[in-house]
Amino acid sequence: MTTTRTAGADKPAGTDETARVQGADDGERLRRWRMVLGADSSQSTGCTLTGRDAAMDGALTALYEGGRQPGGRGGSGRSAGLGASAPSVARWLGDIRTYFPSSVVQVMQRDAIDRLGLSALLLEPEMLEAVEADVHLVGTLLSLNKVMPETTKETARAVVRKVVEKLESRLTTRTRAALTGALDRSAKVSRPRHHDIDWNRTIRANLKNYLTLPGEDGAGTIVPERLIGYGRAAQSVKKDVILCIDQSGSMAASVVYASVFGAVLASMRALRTRLVVFDTAVVDLTDQLDDPVDVLFGTQLGGGTDINRALAYCQSRITRPADTVVVLISDLYEGGIRNEMLKRVAAMKASGVQFVTLLALSDEGAPAYDRDHASALAALGAPAFACTPDLFPEVMAAAIEKRPLPLPDKEAHG
Q1: Are the C-beta atoms of residues 241 and 265 closer than 8 Å to each other?
Q2: What gap in Å lies between CA 141 and CA 119, rounded to an integer?
Q3: Who is most buried in 52, 100, 285, 332, counting CB within 10 A?
Q4: pTM, whole model, 2 decimals?
């Protein structure tokens, strides 16, 4: 009896489907490697890009491929691929917003500014309208503020305001809640005047001290060991806060966040907030705190640093040391007199001031900073650490209540 075999009948069930899926996975893997490595990898990967992939690759090539060193798009030493043409850059900005998510767009914009020297093009209103606004772009615009033509300034302010409003909506509610609770707890009145006693709460708090009076059936009295006041000082200023901000170029993101927080703190009636920025000079921007955009355009990013001079100014404005929190935001590279700076911090702390040192107030963590100065401040009881915007309300609440600061990862730099 002759037996015939159908082609493929001896293959295990599902083999064709498995091979198809495996082939698709390999194809996707090669496509991804081709996108990562750039045009030079077309032959080695055997992958040709078409359609949307080709357009995305073109946007990446314009930024990263010119004069590329071996090792894919992560290498260094590339030359510009966009040229100096504003129209071509504007088209490229539109392309990357089409093909990539917002977070990637912001990274590519920063790379374009750093690698291709596009800062000058940001002085054109049409260019500003095409970019994806974020904290880092605001920092770049602020660094260009003094050379920005009048025709661009209004557009730049609109871009900055858009970022500031996003930050305010993200940070305001949590900050106010954290600080209001801290202020209430720090302002408890243990010895209120007679007419300020809240008798209902005082009685409830002292029920354990009820004493039966002799000779009176069931009669007794409460001994009020703890008096609770109405807290009439709730509408008065309970704490003074001084934000002392280093406006050197490396602190751009910190300046943006600190300005927003300064406006939030200034809106709380129980706080008296002062905002001081410095490089080698000191500028008090307190009278502009009702609008953080005005504060930001009042800064001058770049230049040297004189922390001692800035702290001297802040120290001269302290009238209630025991009720004052000074927040120094700086990478601690001091161009002034180091020993005098440390003496000022020690003197402020000895007088009762709560002194907080932040190496950065941003999402990126600590920049390069002076480790010797950080260690010296830590030895004075003012540990230096980088603080994210989300952690800042907790840091301020702890400082107001005079309790240990919530240091990231339980340790400070230095």
Answers
A1: yes
A2: 8
A3: 332
A4: 0.69
